[in-house]
Design brief:
single chain
């Protein structure tokens, strides 16, 4: 055994050795479980999101109407399925039907890009959409789109798992809340802060993002229909999806549509789409975000952008919602960790040095 300078032997407490070995076994088994159940991550996050949204009406049904927990859970789950999940599945299936042939055969984009390229080159001498750049764009966009649609199929398959987890979370809500309070290794103030901020973020991402997207998508559909866009429903859906992208947002949909109308010689509809996008869709975006974010958590645009990229890579289409949520929760936990363990004292630096 090694010894210290004063001749005393240095011994490690056997309890510490047992604790380290035990934690190692727990971590090893935990990594295996997470790896094998990774496909359930989107279902688990979806169950948490729905649980936060449905928890208040569940309490109302159980305390005011005296419903049993299983009945309240089933009724609210069916309502959420009809109001939220089925419309999303329907819209996603339409988008998949329309986009899959284009993604599988990207050459169908060539005529559109060629028309826009000729127009920009002849009118403004802008040589952006040449063959080389188009190939680079399709080479980057198509794999992402394929992965997004593939993740969508996986997400649809996880709906059953999501509601299975949600049922047990709702019927055993009190036990779950008591377990979290007991095992969360945080001070009471930080524990409350974490739960409150996570609830706020869940509402903001699960309700706020889709609400703004749906409003912009509907407004987009109306404008595209008025100004002669053939696939106006599909373009409206893409506008809704693009609304979650900070800075550029819906502009990446209606601006190319307007340019394409100009390239086809339809100046009136091109101007109409351009004005509708800038004035109507842009105003609706600002108003909707202001009214909704005023009630919900204000997520930084950079967190939203990075979260969307991470979420789409991890979960497919549904990652548009879960990606920003996951990234926001990460930053909350880092902030709480610094508050819990990063500061040993609240005394000024000079007083710490004296002590």
């Amino acid at each position: 055994m090694p010894s210290t300078n004063d001749g005393l032997e240095f011994r490690i407490n056997p309890n510490i050795i047992r604790q380290v070995l035990f934690l190692g076994i727990i971590l090893f088994i935990g990594v295996i479980i997470i790896k094998e159940m990774y496909f359930m991550m989107s279902a688990f996050l979806g169950a948490i999101s729905l649980h936060v949204i449905l928890d208040h009406p569940r309490k109302y049904l159980q305390t005011i109407w005296k419903w049993p927990s299983w009945l309240a859970a089933l009724v609210l789950m069916i309502l959420s399925l009809v109001v939220m999940v089925l419309p999303l599945i329907y819209m996603t299936s339409i988008a998949i039907d329309k986009l899959t042939p284009l993604i599988n055969n990207p050459s169908q984009f060539n005529s559109v890009f060629s028309s826009i390229h000729d127009y920009l080159l002849s009118r403004f001498n802008i040589d952006v959409l040449n063959n080389e750049n188009v190939q680079k764009i399709t080479g980057q966009v198509v794999p992402i789109a394929q992965k997004t649609l593939g993740g969508t199929f996986t997400a649809l398959g996880n709906v059953f798992l999501m509601y299975l987890v949600l049922y047990f979370m709702m019927t055993e809500a009190q036990k779950l809340r008591a377990w979290i309070r007991k095992n969360l290794p945080l001070k009471l103030t930080n524990a409350k802060k974490v739960t409150q901020e996570i609830n706020s973020l869940v509402f903001s991402n699960t309700i706020g993002i889709p609400m703004v997207a749906i409003i912009q998508g509907v407004v987009g559909v109306i404008g595209y229909w008025l100004f002669g866009v053939e696939e106006f429903i599909l373009m409206g859906m893409l506008t809704a999806i693009a609304s979650v992208i900070p800075l550029v947002g819906t502009m990446i949909i209606y601006l190319p549509l307007a340019v394409y109308q100009f390239a086809m010689g339809d100046t009136f509809n091109g101007i109409g789409i351009l004005l509708w996008g800038f004035i109507v869709i842009g105003s609706v975006d600002n108003i909707a975000r202001f009214l909704i974010q005023k009630k919900l958590a204000d997520v930084h645009p950079l967190v939203t952008l990075l979260g969307v990229i991470i979420g789409v890579n991890m979960f497919g289409f549904i990652g548009i919602i879960f990606g920003p949520l996951l990234l926001s929760i990460f930053f909350i936990l880092v902030r709480v960790y610094v508050d819990e363990f990063g500061r040993t004292t609240n005394l000024p630096t000079d007083e710490v040095a004296k002590g």
